Amino acid sequence: MRPILVINSGSSSLKYQLVDVDSSVALQSGLIERVTDHAMAFKQMIQELGDVSPLAIGHRVVHGGSEFSKPVIIDNAVIARIKELSSLAPLHNPGHVAGIEGAVAAFPELVQVAVFDTAFHQTMPVESYRYAIDQKLADEYGIRRYGFHGTSHAFVAQKTAEFLGKDLSELNAIILHLGNGASASAIKNGESINTSMGLTPLQGLVMGTRSGDIDPAIVAYLERVAKMSIDEVDASLNKNAGLKGLTGDSDLRDVESRAKAGDQVAIDALAVYSMRIKHYIGAYLAQIGPIDALVFTAGVGENSVEMRSQITSGLEHLGIKIDAAKNQLRDKSAREISVEGASVKVLVVPTNEELAIALQTAEFLS
Ligand code: ADP
Q1: Which residue's CA lies nearest to atom 14 of ligand 1?
Q2: Catalytic residue at 139?
Q3: Choosing from 20, 37, 75, 117, which is the catalytic residue?
Q4: Which of 21, 36, 240, 292 has the fewest CB atoms within 10 Å of its CB?
Q5: pLDDT, tens digit, for every residue of 59-114?
Q6: Ligand 1 centre from 287 Cα, in Å?
Q7: CATH ID of 167-353, from 3.40.430.10, 3.40.140.100, 2.40.50.140, 3.30.420.40
Q8: What whole-number distance in Å separates Cα of residue 206 and Cα of residue 178?
Q9: What is the CATH number of domain 3-116?
Q10: Mean pLDDT of 162-189
Q11: This prediction's pTM
């Protein structure tokens, strides 16, 4: 038994999972909410864990900027850098730092590793990550596409290669991570060459409560014409947009059941949601060239039969065609849902970010 403790610490919550990496099994997990003092939250977690003691700790960190392209062992310099990167991820990095400091205090003898959501996308070429804005501003403020969900995209890319019996370095694919947050990634030769999220997780696909792509002039327009403050605009686009903004409901299940009952608002929202994804599939096919697989993952991607069908409909001319019966099957393992003989395999590959963090942390022990 080699359990790794995976920590996802937010500003007011502490999520943990104890993972046995040899069997890939989650032994224990918990969520402590309304945290005001991370040291207290760690005391509670240690109580909940009982007499199990972890071998090492892996921390999920949302923003690693341009310097972290792989997991690192945490020391004071790393903590200071994650703190500095808070300007790019004000809702996430401060909570991670509090969690890391709490964990270092509680387990001073253990190796602790930071695993970054941005790391996998550091292989993007300049034409994918650079915004066409004043480069003096971009350089001074670190403005570029970073991309997120990297731990999931990397894990799913590896699982996809295994499923297809290929070496990861030979995999060309488009991965659709569709959860509350959602992002697409373009994988060429096993590496990320583009992804839909940007400087922050606001860009790209339509999400539960985030707008994804909009005309950037909308921000100034709302400030000038609707007299909203910049914080109000920011909050609206992050928390009151996406499916929530379109329909009032952020959970795709609710939107789908309203659409089934004939609610036109919900029907239109599903069309907007799926059309945005089609745009990215088209764009990434043009950038990657021929792909082996189109891969669905995360809550929506793994579970919504209707959304997988809506996204792939009309893409037959691109070699993408799903088998309606296979699409209906529910299964926890990786599976193919495309028709026999299609040039692109459409797959459902469950993601597991905690396991991915545990595996990457365990590598530092061997
Ligand atoms: P998170 O980004 O919070 O990790 P998940 O990956 O768990 O989110 O995805 C959550 C979303 O998955 C929910 O908002 C819900 O809309 C969607 N979802 C889960 N199960 C289903 C289902 N059976 N049908 C449609 N959507 C689903």
Answers
A1: 251
A2: no
A3: 117
A4: 36
A5: 999 999 999 999 999 999 999 999 999 999 888 999 999 999 999 999 999 999 99
A6: 29
A7: 3.30.420.40
A8: 9
A9: 3.30.420.40
A10: 98
A11: 0.96
